[in-house]
Structure formats: structure tokens, C-alpha cells
Structure to design on (380 residues):
């Protein structure tokens, strides 16, 4: 009897130790050395700092496109953002020559950012693979593609081909040091809304989880992509951990938990307390589960509030003792006079943004040092 009891205790302890050992590291046991180092160093930095990110920061900006070593953030602050967002939107649903051009363009952005010491995150505005309508849901036009492309679906083979294209590309992104560049890959974001074809009204919980797990498994295990960190990021339609995890595929399938929140940050209302509570849900779960956490998308279009950076964004992130690896604001359109989320020279929020830039809590590219090395030397 005592022997059986002791064996049961040993089994419980062994299971607990196994679970603990799997925390605080990438879900890919074969992840590259640089990917593991990035994961660990982001976790360390998040205890006291948050990296600032900007989508498409160096590809184009307010009134310009394709200029070497330029970003609107750098023009204002003297440094590129610490995190540069790219998109795999051009990797499918277009003629082969156009796809190849898109892959080359994104590859250059990724490699240049890595060579400078910055961090890369990739969104995927995935054009509907089984119907017209693009990545948005268009009534009477779009099909609920998730059920078609998961295992057993009639377009599953087509989806595997699309993933194969991403996997082949991932094997080609090498820095000046010859190493594969790590990428924080954030597919199927804002899945709790209805505006994308993979959104909640267009796929069951089980279908979405199947899609997520297959995507990770096929890239990691079948295509041997070992330089991706997988980020899970719903929109802001939750208040509790239970609501947040409604479509969560499981800890063994996610490296980073995040949230996209524009609505509470000025798009629909200025609600820093509400936004902070949602970030706390994300950060608390990350710490409990041994994951990274991030404010994966936010911003205020046109930034008409001249103090938004400190009175809204910084205030929100500092309300609780959060551990957020990065915060990313959306893109600056090159043609639109109003569609921008980061300041440029002369924009009304520049003075306040510089206060945000100088705050010890925020990190920009110039602040990073050896983030892809295990022997992390901290920040400048």
C-alpha cells in the first residue's frame, strides 16, 4: 500500500517536472539556436521593458516607399523600431511571378532587420484560398474556408501547397552570419471577430483549433521549419481568461499569447483601464503557462491626440506589473494622408512620442544588443 502510494507520488512529481521543463521555451524542440535565444531574451527583457514595434516600418511610410534604411520612426527618433512587422499576404492567391516578387521583398526586409539586430514579426492576411473576397469576409462572396482546408477538407491538399511555399521561403531567410532568421509568426489573428474568413462566425471552435494545430505541425514537423515562434492573438472581445482561451489550441501549440486592441485605445472609446485589464489577462496567463506575451496590434489612426503615446499607450501598459515582450502599432500608408499609426516629422504627436521613446520602459532597435545570442549582453 505504502509502496503504491510512493509510486503515485513519484509519478505526479515526474509529470509536474515534465510540464515545468516544457515551459519558458519554444514549442519546437528543434528550434534553431538563434530562435531559442530570441525567445529567452524576449522573456528576460519583458520583466522590465517592452519593445516598440511598427508594421511595415522599413518597407514604406508616410509619403515614401522603398528607401534604404528609412522608417518614419527613425526619422523622428533616430532609431528604427525594435520590432518590424511584415506580412505573408503576397505569398499565395497571385500569379507565380508576383508571389516570387513578394517573397523577395519580404526576405530583404527580414534579413536587413536581423542584420541590424532588430526583431521580426509576420502577420498573414491570407487571401481566401477557396473563393473570391480576399482575406476579408464578404457576404454572398466569401466561403468559410477553414472547413475546406483542414485535414479531411476538399481543399486540404491546396492548403498544404500554400504552407509548403511558406516553408521553402523560411529556409532561405539567412542573415549575414549565415544563420536562419527567427520570425514571430502570427497567423489567423483577430479570429474572434467576423471580418476575416477565419473568424468566429465562419468556423467552429473545433475547426479553428484543427486549423491551428495542423498549420504548426505541418510547418514544424513535416517541412522542418525551425525558425518560427508561433503567436496566438485574438481581438479584444474578452474580459476573462476563460473567454480569452475559448479557441486556444493548447500550450503545446503556442509560444506567445497576445491581443490586438484598437477599440479600447481610441478607435471606439478611450478606455485605458479596460485595455489594461485585458493585457493583464494575457500577461498573467503567459506567466502561468510559461509563454511569451505581447500587445500584438494597437494604435490610433492619424494620432490626433497629441499625448496618446504617454497618456494612453504607456499608461495602459504600466497600469499593472505586466510582462509584455512588445507592442506593435499598425502601418503608415504611403499614399493616404490619414491612414498612419506612427508619427513622422511634423506630425502633431512627435514631441510626446519622443517622451515615449526616452522612457526606460520602451526599447527601440538601437537599444538592443545581441538578442539572438544565448549569452545575452542586455541592452545598450
Amino acid at each position: 500500500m505504502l509502496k503504491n502510494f510512493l509510486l503515485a507520488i513519484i509519478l505526479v512529481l515526474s509529470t509536474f517536472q515534465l510540464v515545468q521543463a516544457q515551459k519558458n521555451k519554444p514549442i519546437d524542440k528543434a528550434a534553431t539556436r538563434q530562435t531559442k535565444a530570441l525567445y529567452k531574451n524576449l522573456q528576460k527583457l519583458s520583466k522590465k521593458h517592452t519593445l516598440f514595434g511598427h508594421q511595415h516600418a522599413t518597407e514604406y511610410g508616410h509619403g515614401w516607399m522603398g528607401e534604404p534604411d528609412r522608417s518614419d520612426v527613425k526619422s523622428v527618433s533616430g532609431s528604427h523600431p525594435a520590432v518590424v512587422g511584415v506580412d505573408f499576404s503576397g505569398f499565395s492567391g497571385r500569379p507565380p511571378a508576383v508571389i516570387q516578387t513578394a517573397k523577395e521583398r519580404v526576405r530583404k526586409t527580414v534579413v536587413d532587420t536581423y542584420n541590424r539586430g532588430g526583431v521580426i514579426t509576420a502577420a498573414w492576411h491570407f487571401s481566401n484560398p477557396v473563393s473570391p473576397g480576399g482575406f476579408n469576409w464578404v457576404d454572398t462572396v466569401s466561403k468559410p474556408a477553414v472547413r475546406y482546408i483542414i485535414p479531411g477538407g476538399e481543399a486540404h491538399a491546396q492548403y498544404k501547397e500554400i504552407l509548403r511555399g511558406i516553408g521553402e521561403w523560411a529556409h532561405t531567410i539567412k542573415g549575414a552570419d549565415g544563420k536562419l532568421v527567427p520570425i514571430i509568426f502570427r497567423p489567423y489573428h483577430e479570429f474572434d471577430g467576423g471580418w476575416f474568413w477565419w473568424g468566429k462566425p465562419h468556423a467552429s471552435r473545433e475547426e479553428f483549433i484543427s486549423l491551428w494545430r495542423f498549420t504548426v505541425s505541418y510547418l514544424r514537423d513535416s517541412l522542418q521549419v525551425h525558425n518560427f515562434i508561433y503567436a496566438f492573438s485574438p481581438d479584444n472581445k474578452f474580459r476573462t481568461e476563460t473567454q480569452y482561451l475559448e479557441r486556444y489550441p493548447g500550450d503545446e501549440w503556442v509560444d506567445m499569447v497576445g491581443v490586438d486592441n484598437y477599440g479600447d485605445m481610441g478607435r471606439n472609446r478611450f478606455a485605458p483601464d479596460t485595455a489594461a485589464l485585458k493585457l493583464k489577462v494575457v500577461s498573467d496567463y503567459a506567466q502561468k503557462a510559461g509563454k511569451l506575451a505581447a500587445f500584438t496590434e494597437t494604435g490610433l489612426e492619424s494620432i490626433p491626440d497629441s499625448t496618446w503615446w504617454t497618456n494612453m499607450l504607456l499608461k495602459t501598459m504600466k497600469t499593472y506589473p505586466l510582462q509584455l515582450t512588445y507592442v506593435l502599432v499598425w502601418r503608415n500608408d504611403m499614399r493616404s494622408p490619414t491612414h498612419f499609426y506612427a508619427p513622422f516629422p511634423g506630425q502633431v504627436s512627435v514631441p510626446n512620442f519622443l517622451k515615449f521613446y526616452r522612457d526606460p520602459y520602451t526599447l527601440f532597435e538601437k537599444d538592443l544588443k545581441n538578442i539572438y545570442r544565448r549569452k545575452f549582453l542586455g541592452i545598450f
In short: The mean pLDDT is 94.
